[in-house]
Amino acid sequence: MRLGFYRKERRRALRASVERHQLEITVSDVKADASQSEIEMLEAKEMWSEYRLADGTRLRIRPVIIAVFRANGEVTADGEPAYNIKSTLITDVRAAAGPAQS
Fold it and tell me: Minimal CA–CA distance to 42: which of 80, 24, 68?
């Protein structure tokens, strides 16, 4: 029971840390001055992607979507509405048990 409490507290602290140190990178062709409307997220399912490295380290990555915006009047090359997403990644790195390999 206590372990679950610490995990929730750790997650809460990670999110707070991420929000304080946001790094925004523009990767869209949508004009920066384009009018945008924030779209409410109704459901989220943020799953971990897990990787096992050659040295035995386990790397877990989970995307967290902070906000979704539709660029008003902008469309993709396929004619679909253009969206911008404000997001971040949470990482969890667990070293292999035992002595480090070189």
Answer: 68
